[in-house]
Amino acid sequence: MDVDDIETIAVLGAGNMGHGIAEVAALAGFDVHLRDIKEEFVQKGYDQLEWSLNKLAEKEQIGEAEAEAALDRVTPIVDLEEAVEDADFVVEAVPEKMDIKKNVYRELEQHAPDEAVFATNTSSLSVTELSEVTDRPERFCGMHFFNPPVRMQLVEVISGAHTDPEVLDLTEDLAEAMGKTPVRVRKDSPGFIVNRVLVPLLNEAAWLVEDDVATIAEVDSTTKYDIGLPMGAFELADQVGVDVSYDVLDYMQGVLGDAYEPCPLLVEKVEAEKLGKKTGEGFYDYDDGGADVPT
Ligand code: 3HC
């Protein structure tokens, strides 16, 4: 299969990442089926996608006609079979739990065309392990976007142990067709490249506050103005979702050892469901005009 053969992309999961990936695909001219398990979830993702397109048009980063055309290419769907039966490429962005993802792949395998490629947007989980619950581990890879997908240039394309190199080439071509810059991750390893580097940084920032070495504001001004990240460490944790950072660390701890133990400060936020922008509060409060992204 060539990238020109890809017409319809199914995006499974309409959350923070799923709706953003669907937006990127629609802007690139693909027909997109945005699927989630409940009407309210898929509608929320669709509304966020529409908000984002309008925001880009308002800022003249895209034209109004382009925004409208992209939105027209997106079909929100709840029924999995309907979402994937004519898909050429499936990007899965469901919650970062191995069991949930495996169940989705088992069901997906029953309905997707044999030639369709499955790509997981997992942040850290084993691509190989996920691929092995399907009948097409050679047509399975990681395609990891960054938050927010419409603004972030990089896409990690991850090889599982069974991935056909042609599928990696195709996925990189697709990322380029979406206007992104793919980087190949040659070996399936927890956190891949970016999260292996970034998430321990977010964890260390949390330990500094936990140990009373510095306040959140002090850490963030340091990471932003001295280290040169586009956001402070805690702003970034709120951007990606504190639960996502926690899940990545938890998985890395299990595979790589206790150096990756999540800081209690992250655990507390997850338990309190203060997950960042998406819940209106994380390390910062967004209900007070801090974030205008709808939650
Ligand atoms: N769509 C459209 N507009 C959006 C948006 C979206 N999805 N999200 C935010 N915006 C808007 C904001 O509402 C704001 O609008 P306003 O000016 O009207 O208030 C505007 O974008 C801010 O954009 P600016 O260009 O003015 O601001 P920045 O220069 O700060 O850029 C940013 C914003 C691109 C998000 C930048 O801060 C950035 O790069 N942050 C780091 C993000 C990052 O590192 N992400 C990767 C994290 S790791 C990850 O995702 C992996 C995962 O597996 C954990």
UniProtKB/TrEMBL annotation:
Where the record annotates domain 3-hydroxyacyl-CoA dehydrogenase C-terminal, the positions are: 191-286
Span of domain 3-hydroxyacyl-CoA dehydrogenase NAD binding: 8-188
* Source organism, top-level taxon: Archaea
Q: Which family does the record assign? A: Belongs to the enoyl-CoA hydratase/isomerase family.
Protein name, UniProt field:
enoyl-CoA hydratase
Full-protein interval shown: 1 to 295 of 657
